[in-house]
Amino acid sequence: METVSTKPAFSLASWFDFKGNNTNLRTEVIAGLTTFATMAYMVAVVPNMLSKGGIPFDSALTVTVLMTVITTIAMAVYTNRPFVLGPGLGSVAIFSYTLLGNDVPLGIAAGIVFISGVLFMLVSFLGVRDFVVRVIPHSVKVSVGVGIGLFIALLGFKQAGVVVADPRKNVLIFGDLASLEVLVAMLGFFLVLFFVSRKIQGGIILAVLLTTLISLPLGITSVPDSLFSMPGSIDDMFFQLDVMGALSPVYLPFLLAFFIPDFFSTLGALLGIGAQAGYLDKDGNLPGIEKTSTWTPVPRRLVPCSLARY
Prior knowledge:
The model is unreliable at 300-304 (pLDDT under 50). The protein has a domain at 17-146 and 243-309. The chain is globular, with a radius of gyration of 21 Å. Strand 2 and strand 3 (171-174) form a beta hairpin. It has helices spanning 12-15, 25-39, 41-52, 57-79, 89-99, 106-125, 128-135, 138-160, 180-197, 203-218, 243-246, 252-277, 289-292; strands at residues 85-87, 163-166, 171-174, 307-309. The longest helix has 26 residues, at 252-277. Helix 5 (89-99) runs antiparallel to helix 12 and helix 6 packs across helix 12. The chain is mostly helical. Belongs to the nucleobase:cation symporter-2 (NCS2) (TC 2.A.40) family. Azg-like subfamily. It comes from Photobacterium aphoticum. It is a multi-pass membrane protein. GO terms for molecular function: purine nucleobase transmembrane transporter activity. The chain crosses the membrane at residues 29-47, 59-78, 83-100, 106-128, 140-157, 177-196, 203-223.
C-alpha cells in the first residue's frame, strides 16, 4: 500500500530555508513590513527628484515602484538574501540635477546610466568586485557602511527640516527646531532608538505608525483622497536610450560619477547589512557576493535610474 505524502509541493519555509537561517514566517513578515516602512519615503522622494529634471511625476512613480518590486523579488529568489533594491538617491540626484538640469537630452542621460549598468555587470561577472572586497582592509569596509548610514541619516534630517541648506554659504544649517514637524520627527527618532535598544520586534515600524498617528491631528500628515489609483504610463521613460550619444568623451565624467560611487555605495550597503545579519566571514567578507551583485545593474538597461541596497 502506497503512502501518500501530505507535505505541500511548495512552501516558503523550505524555499527560503527558514530553519537554516534561524527564522520563521512571523519574523519575516515583521521584517518585511519594517523594511517597507523605513524605505517608503523613496516612493515620494525619487519621483519628486526626477520630476525636477522634467520627467512626469506619475511616470517616475510607476517606474520606481515596478523596479523596486521586480528586482527585490529577484534578489530574494536568486540569492535568498534579505536585501531590498531601490533607486540610489545619489545617482538619481546626479541624473536629475546634473544631467537633465544641464539640458542633457533624456536619451543620452539614460544611455549614460545604461553604460554604467553594463560596466557594473561586467565587474560582477568577472569577479572583480569580489577581488576588491577581499583586498580592502576591514576597517575601511566598516567605515564605508557607517558613511552610507550617516548619508541616509542626513537625508532624513533634511527631509524633516532639522537641517536646511544655506545657499549664501553653500552649507547646511539647523532649521526651525521648535517647529511641529521637527519635534514630531525627533520624537519618532527617539522612539526608534528606544524600541531598538529594547530589542522589540517590529520596533521601527511601530515607531513609524505612532509618529504618523501623532502627525495626523497636528496637520503634519494628511489622509489621501483615495487609497487606490491607476499607475501612470511609463512611455515617457521606457527604453529612452541614446547609447551612441552617451559614448561621447564629453560625458565620460558623468559616467564615472555614476559608476564609481555606485560601486562603493552598494559594496558598503552589502557589507553593512551582511554584518548585521551575520553573513560575513571572519575576515569581514560576504560569501557569494557575486550573486547578490548580479541584479543591481539589470534595471539600468530598462529605466534611467541606478539601484542601491537597503
